[in-house]
Amino acid sequence: MVLQIFTLIGALGMFLYGMNFMSAGLQKASGDKLRGILTSMTSNPFKRVLTGLGITALVQSSSATTVLVVSFVNAGLLTLVQAVGIIMGANIGTTLTAWVTAVGFSVDISAFSVPLMILGFLLTSSKKQNNKNIGEFIVGFALMFLGLSFMKSSAGAILSNKDAMVAFFSHFTEFGFWSDIIFLLAGTILTIVLQASSATMAITMLLTTSGLIDFELACAMVLGENIGTTITANMAASVGNTAAKRAALAHTLFNIFGVIWMLIVFKPFLRLVGIVMDAVGFYNPLTIDLTTPEAGPTLLYGISMLHTLFNITNTMVLIWFSPTIVKIVEKLIKTPKNSEDEAFRLKYIDAGRIAAPEFASEQATKEIIHFAQICRNGLGYAREAINESDPDKFEELRKKLVKYEEISDRIEYEIATFLNAISAQEVSMATSYQIKSMYKIIGELESLGDSGESISRILSRKNIHKKEFDAESIKHLNGMVDLVDEAYAVMIENLNAYYSGNLDEIRNAYDAEDRINVMRNNLREQAIEEVEGGDSTSYLTSVYYLDIVSELEKMGDFMINVSQDLYKCKLKISQL
């Protein structure tokens, strides 16, 4: 008996691992399609629902979709109203998993699973990345159905003498409506513990076909699973911003509202499920004789039908109340009064666990663009510091440049940590190349932050020695800063072009770098000639002046490195 129990638990683990492996393969094989689905987002609420449905059907995980949506809301890529629509679609998309599970229990596909694993292994050995991804999907698919087969057989062995278990469950099945509530709570808690509604669905189907609970109580458990699955998004949002927390709460409220109205019409809705089952050629799970061979498949498909009809109906009812749900969560989660640090926090990747690595790399790219914009803001303070003659105002600017250097260090570390987390998962070769490139790019951006702080130190030493730049020197330095700012604009333009897939060449970056180098050379030669010609400007003032020119030129070097890294990465990916 103990061995059979561990076999059942192991079979559940195999089922979940197979589903995750299958999902990973699908994500890598269809990464471009996933991005296309997201970019098709419009203001049409039904298209939002279709977006959520499509993504969930592809990644085979509503939790992955909702965590992804939370992270995109956290990033400002989706509004709260858009997020609610996608989450509604995700709830419909996840019903596909219930049907797959029902088929796995009712039809023994395990006989085909081993040959499928051979095919999957051969494909994963292919040199073509897309074949490897498809191979992973096939292996995951085979493992999932093997897990279901082992679950069914081990449960049958455990229940060969099931009197004790029937007696145990009978304690909770004799309270009428309250029994429904008990099993609803059981489904909620089990889903929270397992962190996978698909696993709870498999357990529910197993209990039903084993005769331990009837169809009505199984449906109550399914309703509970819809509430329990929202915990994943809330955990992800716990480290996100206010918008992310609101999106996760909206998911919870949507599912809770749905379960509440469903409980009010629970009995009639079950009868509707029976009518629909009759209409599509199945037996009615409420009236079928449980001793017949057709009883098992009928109960399984009935549970799947209930899950599908509930989520479709719930979406059709509540989609019109999306703005109301948004208003409720905005009242429940207030905007923080102190948002001073909002501008300096991670904007795109600060929403907890990684749901889909192929999407996560895209989030990291957007975060790097945000990082570059923050660095450019630091150049603005460097310009002000160069032009500031008042000691007190200069000190304020110096502190800001020091703060920006600390911010760049922190952002580099947090992006690198995020990239490490992506690298630890199964990713496509293209994503692997992107991650390696991103490591280099964030290092260059962090160096830009260092340069701003270095300029503040040079200016501080100048002030300590009571040296002043004349009007002509200030004018030249401002001209140099203008060129560096133009190089910043070019670098950010190339980052955006890479993100959108339109980075065809980087001539603009080379031109910006050439202009900086030419001006640096001209200013250096002019300053040296003035010193050698006995100009009244002191030698020490010229040293400070040339140090700033040199530091600005180094910033141009860091920026051209970013564009070069982007272009090299694009070429590598195009060769796959």
Describe this structure in words.
The protein is mostly helical. The protein folds into two domains: 331 residues, no CATH class; 219 residues, Phosphate transport system protein phou homolog 2, domain 2 (Methane Monooxygenase Hydroxylase, Chain G, domain 1, Up-down Bundle), CATH 1.20.58.220. Helix content is 80%, strand content 0%. It contains 23 helices and no strands. α6 packs antiparallel against α16 and α19 packs antiparallel against α20. It is elongated and about 110 Å long.
Mean pLDDT: 81
Radius of gyration: 30 Å
Distance linking N and C termini: 51 Å
Order of helices and strands: HHHHHHHHHHHHHHHHHHHHHHH
The major pleated sheet works out as: none
**Using DSSP, what is the number of strands?**
0
**Low-pLDDT ranges:** 339-343
What amount of the residues lies in strands?
under 5%
Number of discrete domains? 2
Judged by helices, strands and strand pairing, the structural class is mainly alpha
How helix-rich are the residues, as a percent range?
over 70%
How many helical elements?
23
Shape: elongated
